[in-house]
Every structure is written in structure tokens, then in C-alpha cells.
Amino acid sequence: MLRPLLHDAHDIPEPLRLGDLRFRKLLSNDDWLALPQAVRKRFSKRLSNGASVVYAGQVAEMRASFAGRVLSQLARLIGSPLPLFRDIHVPAVVTVTEDERSGGQVWTRIYARHGGLPQVIHSAKRFAGPTGLEECVGGGVGMALTVAVEEGALLFRSAGYFIQLFGRRIALPRWLTPGNLTVSHVELGEGRFQFGLDIVHPWLGQLMHQTAVFREVRP
Hints:
By secondary structure, the protein is mostly beta strands. It has one domain (3-217): Lipocalin (Beta Barrel), CATH 2.40.128. The chain has 4 helices and 11 strands, in the order αααβαββββββββββ. Strands 1-2-3-4-5-6-7-9-10-11 form a 10-stranded antiparallel β-barrel. It is globular, with a radius of gyration of 17 Å. It starts with a helix and ends with a strand.
């Protein structure tokens, strides 16, 4: 179903390219220049308010320990922000939409299944907080993120979880968090990139590992 879109991949129209320094400001000059040009271009693309860019591809790997599967099910209480199923070689779509009101981005991830309905995951990235970047999911839960570059890969790592209640931001104790979360963005060439998700708990080890390969399609 997604294959025709993959052959129609190209950059978004010029009128939507406003220039975006928000991710650039989170890195040193040396780290930014260490990224492949395609990655720098991808993360320098700011859309006009309400406009979206779409990335389509498929899930390549998906593993979760027993504890990781339990965590995914418990996370249904805050909107299912983690993959619930272990299907691989299924279509996946990511949509990034500019939200002028919050000054951030709304991310929507869709993972198909071999049987049954697909899973839809929503989150919002905001350029705020102690690290300059945070991601919020349902139920007022969110996490601060640090940004780094290692061996040409762009890495986003959790740096503390929080919940917003009655207008207050409350830091969550470590025992209430899933552990260390890392999201990686690796350029593969020819317009393709690999998204990676890893969650490692300090006592339970690796809870989840997912990779998916995407290519930009027409917004």
C-alpha cells in the first residue's frame, strides 16, 4: 500500500521552507557539522503553522522483554506512547506537524500490523525545559531530552521524566520511570534513514528495541 509513495519521495515545497535553528541550537558547532548533510537538512526544515511532512517506510526490528511488554500495556493509561505489538516488515508512517501555538511539533506515528488495526502514537516536542527539548505524551507525562552526535548518528536521550498536574511540573522518581530511553536517527543514503528506539532499565536491562527505515514522501 505504501510502495508507490516511496517512489514519489522528494523534499517539501519551497514555500514551506522557513529555516529552523531550533535543533541546531541544541548542539555544538562541531557536533552539528559532524552530522551528514542530509540529516542537517532534515532537522533544519521548519514548516509553516499546521503544515506537515510525512515519512513512510516499514518496521525492521521489534523486540521487547516480558517487562517491556508489561510496560507497554501499562502505558495505555497515558495514551499508549510505546509500541504494543512486535510485528516486523509492516508499513510505518511518521507525520510531523508544526504547532505555532506551542512553538513545537506534533509527531504522529502509525504502525501497521499483520492482523488487526494499526497502532497510532501521538506525542509533542517542545523546545523548552532544562535541556531545551522535551517530549510530552498523554496524561501530562513527559521527559526532558538531551541531544548528542555519535559516529554520525543523531541521538536523543531521556534526562528525567515529569508529570504536569494542576499547572505544576513534578519530577518523577526513578523507580516510577521506564529507565533510560534513547532515540537514534541514522542516515542510510539515497533519501533513507533509520529510526531506532531503545529503553534500558537499570535493574531489568533492555526492555525494548525497535528500528524502522523511512523515506520522506510528499506532504
